[in-house]
Amino acid sequence: MSATLTLVQGDITRLRVDAIVNAANSSLLGGGGVDGAIHRRGGPEILSECRDLRASRYGKGLPTGHAVATTAGRLDARWVIHTVGPVYSPDEDRSQLLASCHREALRVADELGARTVAFPAISTGVYGWPLDDAARIAVDTVRAASTAVEEITFALFDDRAYEAFAARLD
Ligand code: AR6
């Protein structure tokens, strides 16, 4: 059975879901954008688990397109699933890496037993991915994924992102 897709406009850190996906960077040690918001609102427990991951499985950092879970700290979620989107390049097609972020995040969600998962628009901020194309990749990938997750929510921060994803869901 495939998951129901829902769009909401607003701050992903306000959602009550089993798992919130973070558009992180390889260091796993925080940053700006949605990553900064998740760490700020979720509190220091998340960073502490990220540091443990860097000291163990991910000594060289989390590779682009991969995903790993930590606690969600004080967020209204059980887990944060960190994934690293590709930086957009006009010269090189990195779509498979962006698709992989979505697939891997859902694979980790399945391992955890998460039934409701929220994604931000990965790579569309600092990493520069054009919104329409990112929406196409994100929606098509989660639709095609085989997962036990029942509800996937895309949390879009502003009107432009919301409209790009809404156009893709029609
Ligand atoms: N809730 C939902 N979406 C948000 C929020 C929020 N609270 N805040 C921003 N967005 P970005 P990236 C949107 O830059 O492009 C970080 O520094 C934002 O409007 O957060 O994957 C990391 O540490 C945009 O549409 O992530 C990395 O270094 C989308 O989230 C780097 O940025 C993604 O923007 C990752 O860049």
Would you write up a description of this structure?
A hairpin with a 7-residue loop joins strand 3 (67-71) and strand 4. The two termini are 20 Å apart. Strands 1-6-5-2-4-3 form a 6-stranded mixed β-sheet, with helices on both faces. It has a single domain (4-169), classed as 3-Layer(aba) Sandwich (Leucine Aminopeptidase, subunit E, domain 1). The chain has 170 residues and is an alpha/beta fold. The chain has 5 helices and 6 strands. Helix 3 (95-112) crosses helix 4 (131-144) and helix 4 (131-144) crosses helix 5 (159-169). The radius of gyration is 14 Å and the shape is globular. Ligand AR6 is lined by residues 11-13, 23-25, 31-35, 37, 85, 120-127, 155, 157-158, 161.
Provide keyphrases for this structure.
38% helix; Leucine Aminopeptidase, subunit E, domain 1; 6 strands; binds ligand AR6; 170 residues; globular; alpha/beta
List the helices and strands and how they pair.
Blueprint (H helix, E strand, L loop, with lengths): L3 E6 L9 E6 L8 H10 L1 H12 L11 E5 L7 E6 L10 H18 L3 E4 L11 H14 L6 E6 L2 H11 L1
Parallel strand pairs: 1-6, 2-4, 2-5, 5-6
Antiparallel strand pairs: 3-4
Helix pairs in contact: 3-4, 4-5
The structure holds ligand AR6.
Ligand AR6 binds next to strand 2 and helix 1.
